[in-house]
Mannonate dehydratase (Conyzicola nivalis), 412 residues
Amino acid sequence: MKIIAADVIVTSPDRNFVTLKLTTDDGLTGLGDATLNGRELSVVAYLREHVVPLLIGIDAHRIEDTWQFLYRSAYWRRGPVTMAAIAAVDVALWDIKAKAAGMPLYQLLGGASRTGLLAYGHASGKSNEELFDSVREHQEQGYRAIRVQTGVPGLKSIYGIASNATFEANTGVRYDHEPAQRGARPAEEDWDTRSYLRHVPTVFEAVRNEFGPELPLLHDGHHRMTPIQAAKLGKSLEPYDLFWLEDVTPAENPEALRLVRQHTTTPLAIGEIFNTVWDYQQIIREQLIDYVRSAVTHTGGITHLKKILDYASQYQIKSGMHGPTDISPVGMAAAMHLGLAIHNFGIQEYMRHGDKTNAVFQQSFTWTDGMLHPGDTPGIGVELDVDEAGRYPYETAYLPYNRLADGTVHDW
Ligand SMILES: [Mg+2]
């Protein structure tokens, strides 16, 4: 089963997506997601210039060997561009293998370990009233677990709040929160950690008072705090029994989590910007986190993320795979198959894609009573309509960045 074609497809229905499509000499095709939000074309070039020529003629069945070949033969290992490119090849090969077997991919990964995947959505509001409405909307859509992001008094625009009027005006689509905006430069947002730390516990108190103790609540700190600030936040949120507190400190320094961990029993999640098992080695071994946030798309695909999650399972650490809208339907399907099969599944982030995106990517997954299931179509269960994709050419878009009141650039 030799690979005879490898096409990199760039499309921007509601936002930019990069997809790798592999074709074998017996007519099977497989898809892999290579979308790297705000840096999409770097992965396109990596694939087209340096990976596609190496794939033609290789045996599509040799997934592990191809992974090791692409990782080790580059010499320059790791990094988001490399690992997104390898992930796309890996998922496309798994898609092909599962189609060849006539089975949904999760069967090849060991079969289903559960009936469906608990998923959480993103509720947000500048005020508590807006936030409560957003939580209720999510509950009406079936969500049984909800991430809560709030405005902070004195700050104009901050991460996680669904007030992206520019995006909505440009696309006609209101995502729960789509931070990447089309345009030649990243948008500037403002930030003040002390105001945030004062305000957030009052919001969680209000949400618990309104919605009761049962609803699993999550929150994302988005890499902005120092270790001691993060420790303070974790401690101040303990009365509100969070499912997890995410990305409290910049992810480059895993040791920071030691200090956070010493001070709080609030569960911690991190890893959406990690891309290999080496990024997790210390924080899993020292049990500094409770959930692995990596996406299949950004962590070398199913082959590599499964190794990370198997390692995590030895320490009772669970999956919490990244699932914002920049993970394409192909990447989401891969996550669902992996999540269904592994024992240490925790929760899946799930922001629904827009109608245009769903017209480009035909999908077999189901969303029932707050639970995802990848479906039983052979492969990963996603096909790409090339003509439909061709209607939406790439448009430059960037994630925002932060400045403090005195003009200092801050972590976003
Ligand atoms: Mg995050």
The chain is about 40% helix and 20% strand. The chain has two domains: 3-103, 117-379.
